[in-house]
TrEMBL record:
SUPFAM superfamilies: Phosphoglycerate mutase-like. The active site is at H84 (nucleophile), D342 (proton donor). It comes from Penicillium malachiteum. Disulfide bonds join C73-C391, C417-C425. The lineage of its organism: Eukaryota, Fungi, Dikarya, Ascomycota, Pezizomycotina. Keywords: Disulfide bond, Glycoprotein, Hydrolase, Signal. Its EC number is 3.1.3.8. This is 3-phytase. Gene3D superfamilies: Phosphoglycerate mutase-like (3.40.50.1240).
Length: 483
């Protein structure tokens, strides 16, 4: 069976088969010239893995489970929630970044030296304040491009779930925030191609609290930041050392650890805009490791499993998507594409028990290995894809319906349910598991009875295409409430 996941394997087999050894006509050796299996495994060294959720998308490091459905199975329903694509810094972050740049240039240095030599020609990459908070549109990692490509790749993977001849409208759902809406549109154009305009009905769901549980961005009304969240500091030894190095190379410069953090933060977004940043090389990989950890801590304690209400928030989507999986393509649709923010998706992971550490993250050291690396969980464009699989019987498994979770294109089995084909979980077991462990959003968050008590928009949706494109229905950027 031919499928995308097998292209890599196919190419290396072909390379092996054509490598000839000796001169005997007709004899093709099995001994390859080049090592067919990569021995370098460099992804841990990639800066993309150490910049938290701020920089370009990268696939999750896999467990080695095949991405395609196992031989006996076909996907008959897909439910995805995706974060917006690569973006500019938020305007709320811009203030401290710009203050640090002013401090740098205010040092009066004429000729930059050492690791900062590039400052002799470098310029800041945001030349219009209006760009803050928006998707990027230049460079190889730009948010609009990567989102379109993701849509086109999913067309290859899930195109069989779109019955073009039916002429049916396909609803998609996005939270009401400009960059998220732009993401939904670009993804839709990628997936549906030039049928997008007439085929899709983009439903825009308000992010307001009055939506209660009928929301892609639900919140616990009384959920305050934890004390640890408020006490997190960027004054780390690694950043003090970096400041000292740059100051020594450039007499007159007086950077401190906070400034180093701000400069690293700023440079990550340069990748989203330009694809390349000289700043990345001004810091060591170990310093980037620490930078990544500041992002893990920030997420964990401020918007992650360290927040006691987090699972309850994620249970809204986990519960409603369970209903879709049980209904299946017979009673529900086959395709559910949804778009929101990073901190709307991480609660869902917690509710499902994916990427949830057993112990709180330490503040004074980095745990090795760590199961909570945001760069591996929710980069820009990060997404959780639930696949419903219809499987024939195999020698080891029964015929039936199975569920798999795919996080950033890596299959992530459930620890307490992986007996199905391809480490999947039978729908019956999945249902039991969620019914046992999902907290009740309404009671845990003391939801006001005047607002919607459950998610309903997947069943009651609008079939209008009015919001498919930016036009009279233009929705403005709404400030910095989310990331
Ligand atoms: C499952 O079995 C049916 C009946 O033999 C066959 O038509 C179908 O292609 C099989 N599905 C897969 C994914 O192999
Ligand atoms: C998509 O476009 C193709 C080519 O015009 C057409 O055959 C097909 O019916 C369209 N599908 C839908 C759902 O509009
Ligand atoms: C959040 O803080 C406010 C004000 O300090 C307090 O009244 C409220 O009870 C807190 N909520 C929770 C859930 O702790
Ligand atoms: C670094 O300097 C800035 C002002 O330039 C200041 O706001 C910040 O608190 C300083 N950080 C540390 C750790 O001293
Ligand atoms: C779970 O979802 C179903 C259907 O969407 C809904 O009727 C039910 O109220 C939800 N349960 C909870 C606890 O939210
Ligand atoms: C619930 O909402 C109503 C209407 O907005 C409001 O009057 C009431 O004070 C709210 N109750 C609580 C407990 O927040
Ligand atoms: C669907 O969207 C259209 C266009 O925005 C709007 O006029 C209509 O009222 C909406 N219908 C429902 C049921 O929300």
């Amino acid at each position: 069976m031919w499928s995308i996941g097998q292209i890599g394997t196919f190419l290396s087999v072909a390379a092996v088969a054509t490598a000839s050894y000796g001169n005997r006509p007709g004899y093709v050796s099995r001994i390859p010239f080049a090592a067919p299996y990569d021995q370098s495994f460099l992804e841990g060294y990639s800066v993309l893995k150490h910049i938290g959720g701020l920089g370009p998308y990268s696939n999750r490091m896999s467990f080695g489970i095949g991405r395609d459905p196992p031989d006996a199975c076909t996907v008959d329903q897909v439910i995805m929630i995706r974060r917006h694509g690569e973006r500019y810094p938020q305007s709320s972050d811009a203030e401290s970044v710009e203050a640090t740049l002013e401090k740098l240039y205010g040092s009066g240095i004429d000729t930059w030296k050492g690791d900062l030599t590039f400052l002799n020609w470098w310029t800041y990459y945001v030349d219009d304040e209006g760009l803050y908070g928006l998707e990027t549109e230049t460079g190889p990692y730009n948010g609009l491009l990567t989102t379109y490509k993701h849509g086109a790749e999913y067309r290859v993977r899930y195109g069989h779930l779109w019955d073009q001849d039916s002429g049916k409208k396909i609803p998609m759902w996005t939270s009401e925030y400009e960059r998220v809406i732009q993401t939904a549109r670009k993804f839709g154009e990628g997936f549906f191609g030039w049928n997008y305009t007439d085929t899709v009905a983009l439903n825009v769901i308000s992010e307001s609290e009055i939506m209660g549980a009928n929301s892609l961005t639900p919140e616990c009304p009384g959920d305050n930041d934890t004390a640890i969240c408020d006490s997190l500091s960027q004054d780390l030894p690694a950043f003090r050392m970096a400041a000292d190095r740059l100051n020594t190379q450039n007499p007159g410069l007086d950077l401190n650890s906070t400034d180093v953090f701000e400069l690293m933060f700023m440079s990550v977004f340069e990748l989203n805009v330009r694809g390349y940043s000289d700043w990345i090389n001004a810091f060591t990989l170990d310093e980037w490791k620490w930078f990544g950890y500041t992002q893990d801590l920030d997420f964990y304690y401020c918007a992650g499993p360290g927040d006691p209400y987090y699972k309850a928030v994620g249970s809204v989507y986990a519960n409603a998507s369970l209903t879709l999986l049980i209904q299946g393509p017979e009673e529900a649709q086959t395709i559910y594409f949804n778009f929101a923010h990073d901190t709307n998706i991480t609660p869902i992971l917690a509710a499902l028990g994916i990427a949830s550490p057993h112990e709180d993250l330490p503040l004074d050291k980095i745990p090795f290995p760590s199961s909570y690396e945001i760069g591996n969980i929710m980069p820009m464009g990060g997404h959780l894809t639930l696949e419903r699989m219809k499987c024939n019987a195999t020698a080891a498994t029964e015929e039936g319906i199975y569920v798999r979770a795919v996080l950033n294109e890596a299959v992530v089995p459930f620890n307490d349910c992986q007996e199905g084909p391809g480490f999947s979980c039978s729908l019956a077991h999945y249902t039991k598991m969620l019914n046992n462990k999902l907290p009740d959003f309404v009671s845990e968050c003391k939801l006001n009875s005047t607002v919607p008590q459950y998610l309903d928009f997947w069943w009651n949706y609008n079939t209008s295409s009015a919001y498919n494109h930016q036009g009279t229905a233009y929705i403005p950027y709404q400030g910095d409430g989310w990331a």
